[in-house]
């Protein structure tokens, strides 16, 4: 009986430590991120449907991804569908999915609708801050420059 009495305080400390860790360890997320890709004039970037939005967090060596829907909206996923992104300042890329021009047999890819700089981490210039809670994000991009 004496052994149990002495080990009880250790058990309380151990259990408290576990509970504190469980309640505080998830402080970095992921947190829900819903957003919209719009052109520089504010209109929805419908032409980017099927493209991929990537939120990269280099210091945590992780990223979150989402697919642009027909209305320009997206939701991010890190570990499981639509769970969001970790907290922090993210570098953002958009990898455009380009459509075939003239039907699937033509083999000709249509020109991109979006300026290609947004698909390169060195030139994108897009950033987003994810915080605890819901994170509505709007990404404003330019169309492909006319030549």
Summarize the structure.
This protein has 147 residues and is α+β, with helices and mostly antiparallel strands. Helix content is 16%, strand content 31%.
General description of the model:
The chain is an alpha+beta fold and 147 residues long. The protein has one domain (29-141): Carboxypeptidase-like, regulatory domain (Immunoglobulin-like). It is built from 1 helix and 9 strands. The chain has one helix at residues 2-24, and strands at 33-39, 52-57, 62-67, 73-75, 88-95, 100-101, 108-109, 126-130, 135-141. The strands form 3 sheets. A 4-stranded antiparallel sheet has the order 3-2-5-8, with no helix packed on it. Strands 4-1-9 form a 3-stranded mixed sheet, with no helix packed on it. The protein has a two-stranded antiparallel ribbon with strand order 6-7. The longest helix has 23 residues, at 2-24. It is elongated and about 50 Å long. The model is unreliable at 11-25 (pLDDT under 50).
What's the helix and strand layout?
Blueprint: H1 2-24, E1 33-39, E2 52-57, E3 62-67, E4 73-75, E5 88-95, E6 100-101, E7 108-109, E8 126-130, E9 135-141
Parallel strand pairs: 1-9
Antiparallel strand pairs: 1-4, 2-3, 2-5, 5-8, 6-7
Order of helices and strands: HEEEEEEEEE
Distance between the termini: 87 Å
Helix content: 10-25%
Strand order of the largest sheet: 3-2-5-8
Cα shape: elongated
Name of the level-1 CATH class: Mainly Beta
- Indicate the structural class: alpha+beta
